[in-house]
Amino acid sequence: MADGEGDPGVFTATALPGDPRLLPTVTNAFLGTRVFRDILHAAGVYSGAAGDTHRADVPSPLGLRMAAPGARSPAESFTLNTWTGTFSHTIQSPGYTATHQLYAHHSLVHLMAFSITIRRLDGSTHPISIQLQSLFVPQSQDLDLTPGPDFQGAHYIYGQTLVPEVEGGPRPTVHMLWTPIPQLLTLGGEERERCWEFLTAVAGSEEEAKRSYSTGLALAAAGSLHPSHVRAWAALRQGCSVELDGPLALRQALHGCLYYLLSAVPPRDSHGVLFHGISPGGLSNGTRGEDYWGHIFWDQDTWMFPSILLLYPEAARAILQYRIRTLQGARRNAQEQGYEGAKFPWESAATGREVCPEEIYGAQEIHISGDVLMAFEQYYCTTQDQKLFREDGGWELVEAVAQYWCSRMVWSEEEQLYHIRGVMPPDEYHSQVDNSAYTNAVARRSLNFATDMAQDLLLLVPEEWEDRAIKIKVPFDEDRKYHPEYDGYSPGEPVKQADVVLLGFPLMHPMSAEVRRNDLEMYEPVTDPAGPAMTWSMFAVGWLELKELQRAWSQLEKCFSNITEPFKVWVENLDGSGAVNFLTGMGGFLQVVLFGFTGFRITRSSLLFDPALPDNITKLKVSTISYLGNKLEVTITREEISMEVTQTSQDPPASPLEAVLESGQRFPLWEGQSVSFPTTSGWIQRSPS
């Protein structure tokens, strides 16, 4: 991985950022914390009712810091290694080094661990001691915790959250076991090196917490606890490998995004472990007053999901299953607002009921239901997984969202079109508008997908779905040839964030290249430069689509202002406000690489490609594109595209593929055989043979 400029996946510093929110996170699908922090969070464990629902703070034994007593200004370094999924702090003193390693075990998701290693560097024989400075207190403002009996040398506490999300609803239970932590660790005079390992197991049941702790102890005793994590994490990184030849800052940003986003997804073969969605700042954040309280937004479905889908469809399925599990809550939301079907909440926690603290967003920012359904559509088009829809609740969700959109529309006699009135578009500077272009376009896409899905499942299609999809109004200015953001939008009005530009991608709303350009030209100069970080990635994708490489790069470059040093933690807004460890911005950035540079577009019948590499990027290699049960390695340079199927699914059997170029030339894609052709546009589809 290393080159003359250093390894782009290893971030090292000699000092920590002054703002503790910018410290790196160590997270797996169930547990997450920020390094040196005295709390952690467990997935799905919220406390507080309705708008006060927030991630419950679990006291963390992991938030300690090493110190060298008596040493005068020892050299210190702090490293986040994105290849091993491990954070480390090293103290270098004359005669010895002390290293603290911290990680959330990727495959044993109920386990977090840290180790302290002291290594003597000279021939001395005096004892060497390291202080462990900890803020840990086994109490929580969100949990009613009770101590239990020690287990295999570990201390034990357990308890429930204090306030349920909905009245009379469940209060999640937390069980935690941890290795007692001394204030001092000493390397004996006769010892050259010693490693101490400390485990923390957190689960929803006593049995699972004890099983995870015992497993961790056995692995630690065999010297394979950290190696087993590194192996599992490395397999994930290898299975989601994206590499490019270009500026170091771009490659570092890419590896940072992959580290933080992949930390949030479930490990392979994690059947039986419920997945609880991804909030804008991830599982490590979300205490009361932080990261929108850990709630799940469209950020997950629109901004993070597409890249996860291309690289790791099993994790994408887990995200969809979270939405299916919260369908009943979404039905209640629609019912309470006087509509049919299901309205997904603007902010979601464990139940699918609306938990946004401010009523206007839950009432008006209704595009979220279409955003959820678009993720289901993208998943179906790339996997053809009918089981999710036939047996696992997917169809009920699709049908319910289609019913909601139909009940939310009103017929305009004057225009002879359906309207959706009184909404807030993605641009949150405007509310109570009629016919938001984005909202109505995503509603149309929902109804078209519901119709197609019903036909594939051999179900009757309600006539109103097709009728309303055809007759819903999507505002368009015939004179200026652009899409006004809503009825009555005046050109030049300031916009908070990406809105109409999303019609081109990811919605792929039908339009000419001229209209696509006009939308970009119209909204780029009026979009708030201090708006949220994911915005510029969508302008970049738009300009890449039009082969305006310099304009695309200038938009992508804006993202770098939201990436903080030294650990590549993103902030939502330039002033540091909003969510930190902003996975939404990272998801947008990854879409520039995976959909912008490649030109990949997911359609009903194919995966389109139309590469566009900015001048300072010479090569892009994505090693594991998943499509119809195949894993594809795709390498793109300015001159050539090469593709190879590296793996095919046996159960269910993968569809054989072919690449078809715009010229009509066809290349069968057989497993283990690479094909190359000059860089051009085309598509990958099922092979008719």
TrEMBL record:
One of its GO terms (biological process) is carbohydrate metabolic process. It catalyses: (5R)-5-O-[alpha-D-glucosyl-(1->2)-beta-D-galactosyl]-5-hydroxy-L-lysyl-[collagen] + H2O = (5R)-5-O-(beta-D-galactosyl)-5-hydroxy-L-lysyl-[collagen] + D-glucose. Residues 601-645 form the Glycoside hydrolase family 65 C-terminal domain. GO terms for molecular function: protein-glucosylgalactosylhydroxylysine glucosidase activity. It holds the Pfam family Glyco_hydro_65C. Residues 284-490 form the Glycoside hydrolase family 65 central catalytic domain. The keyword Hydrolase applies. This is Protein-glucosylgalactosylhydroxylysine glucosidase. The lineage of its organism: Eukaryota, Metazoa, Chordata, Craniata, Vertebrata.
